[in-house]
């Protein structure tokens, strides 16, 4: 049997279901929090278009419902406007020969009542999450709780 080096393997094609990748350099999902209203925008389109020479792009995590939303600036795919935004992005990637998968996201218990009209978050178990949630006000809250003054950003004395 012929031995193939890692470098050679990286540049060999690969089939994932019906999708054929020309090589194996895949872009990992990266939440960039660039959506101001949860709708994929032109900045995101440019970002993915610029990276379409990857064999496959996996998009940043994208909320599947209002209930599953929990990261400030992240996009969704549960309204017609969001679907249209993603179509523009996938069209731009396809037009330059690339491939893109959407990473679906339901944040469950690590959402926050600020995203749920004050209601508690929903998860598969009654166990509370530890850590901090990223809400529009998380930075301000983190700043004040560490005893600093907040003036648009954290002012440390
Ligand atoms: C800024 C940032 C955003 C990220 N966003 C996501 C994401 O949306 N979905 C996900 O599954 N992983 C996300 N990740 C994890 C990366 O995909 C991960 O770091 C990458 O696959 C490399 O793996 P490693 O950190 O274990 O080396 C993110 C990482 C960073 C640094």
UniProtKB/TrEMBL annotation:
Q: Which Gene3D superfamilies match?
A: Aldolase class I
Q: Which superkingdom is the protein from?
A: Bacteria
For this protein, the record's Pfam families field holds: Oxidored_FMN
- Stretches that traverse the bilayer: none
Q: Which InterPro entries does UniProt cross-reference here?
A: Aldolase_TIM, OxRdtase_FMN_N, Oye-like
Report the residue ranges that make up the NADH:flavin oxidoreductase/NADH oxidase N-terminal domain in this protein: 10-133
GO molecular-function terms, A-Z: FMN binding; oxidoreductase activity
Q: Which PANTHER family match?
A: NADH OXIDOREDUCTASE-RELATED, NADPH DEHYDROGENASE 2-RELATED
Could you tell me what this protein is called? NADH:flavin oxidoreductase/NADH oxidase N-terminal domain-containing protein
In its UniProt entry, the species of origin is given as Rhodopirellula baltica (strain DSM 10527 / NCIMB 13988 / SH1)
Lineage at the top is: Bacteria, Pseudomonadati, Planctomycetota, Planctomycetia, Pirellulales
């Amino acid at each position: 049997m012929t031995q193939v080096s890692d470098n050679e393997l990286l540049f060999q094609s690969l089939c994932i279901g019906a999708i054929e990748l020309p090589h194996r350099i895949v872009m990992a999902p990266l939440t960039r929090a660039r959506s101001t209203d949860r709708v994929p925008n032109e900045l995101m389109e440019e970002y993915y278009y610029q990276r379409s020479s990857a064999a496959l792009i996996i998009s940043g995590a994208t909320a599947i419902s209002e209930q599953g939303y929990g990261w400030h600036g992240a996009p969704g795919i549960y309204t017609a406007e969001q679907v249209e935004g993603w179509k523009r992005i996938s069209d731009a990637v396809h037009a330059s020969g690339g491939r893109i998968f959407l990473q679906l996201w339901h944040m469950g218990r690590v959402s926050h009542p600020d995203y749920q009209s004050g209601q508690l978050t929903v998860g598969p178990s009654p166990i509370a999450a530890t850590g901090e949630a990223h809400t529009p006000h998380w930075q301000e809250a983190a700043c004040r709780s560490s005893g600093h003054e907040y003036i648009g950003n954290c002012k440390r004395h």
